[in-house]
Design a protein that fits this description.
44% helix; 8-stranded mixed sheet; Rossmann fold; alpha/beta
Amino acid sequence: MKKFGKILLAIFALFLCMLFLIGVVFYKKDIPVENLKQLYANTSSQFIPLMGMNVHYRDEGNSTDSIPIVLIHGTSSSLLTWDSVVDNLKDKHRIIRMDLPAFGLTGPNPFKDYSFDYYTHFVDSFLLKLSVNKCIIIGNSLGGGIAWHYALAYPQKVAKLVLVDASGFSSLSKSKGALGFKIAQTPVLNQIVKFVTPRFLVRKSLEDVYADDSRISDSLVDIYFKMTLREGNRSALIDRMRAGFQNESEKIATLKTPTLIIWGEEDQLIPIEHAYRFQKAIPNSQLSVFKSVGHVPMEEAPKQFSTTLTNFLNQQ
């Protein structure tokens, strides 16, 4: 019995040593937001004090457009995910995008609330600050869930709605999911990730999100990696994942806003079946499925995405 106890003690000691070595090798300290601004803020970037944060946003394109497009990114992403959309549509449209609380240069919500009610209130407060009374709202993943919640809360303020691989029908934890998200949801492991965040883990998560790994460049990995290390964002991600993705699918059928659903057929995070569920639930909605594309069609198939979006926006 004593021998068995010694073996267990030795195994535990070895485990602690391994954790220590991993921590030494992969420890990453937070990056100050001012450092990241030098890399990822440009002449179009603006910062606005709102709800205890300094919100990073860009307001670009045709300033005479009376109904601007509002772009909302997903979990662990940033407003940079929409670069191709802005490049392709800015001649005709005014386009507004922001880094959501918990992500990008905006960083954590000081009150640690990341519910859909909170994000709906945040989006409305943000648009009021910019004097936007009506918009076309487009959201990807978590941003899609925020978009349809906003359209339900303020139907008079949303002219059209575009859902891109959107959340809404089930918890992300029930799908295959990206490795980084799984770790952020796992007790103990998620606390380690606050300090130990290997770059290869970010790449692996992107490989889970993309269908075509050849499109994942080193510069793309750098963006996601460094934004994750923005001071406070790792803790905020854990708080966000702890908030969960509540199933409120019964509300989706009450949407009256003209809606386009765009989905990557190879999405491993929110499977294609959810696209058809959205289409069935939302009256008179349209669905466009992108072949050989994953969870972020605007990044992986930018030309197809912009063409599909433009056709929808031009419909009367």
